[in-house]
Amino acid sequence: MKVKEIEFANVQLSNNRPFVLFGGLNVLESRDLGLQVAETLKGVCEGLGISLVFKGSFDKANRSSLKSFRGPGLQEGLRWLDDIKRQLNIPIITDVHEVAQVKSVAQVADVIQLPAFLSRQTDLIAEMAATDKVINIKKAQFLAPEEMVYIVDKFESFDNRKLILCERGSIFGYKNLVVDMLGFSVMKKSFYPVIFDVTHSLQQPGAGLGSADGRRAQVTELAKAGLSQGLAGLFLETHPDPDKALCDGPCALKLESLHPFLDQMKDLDSLIKSQTYIDTA
Question: Is this prediction's pTM over 0.85?
Answer without folding.
Answer: yes
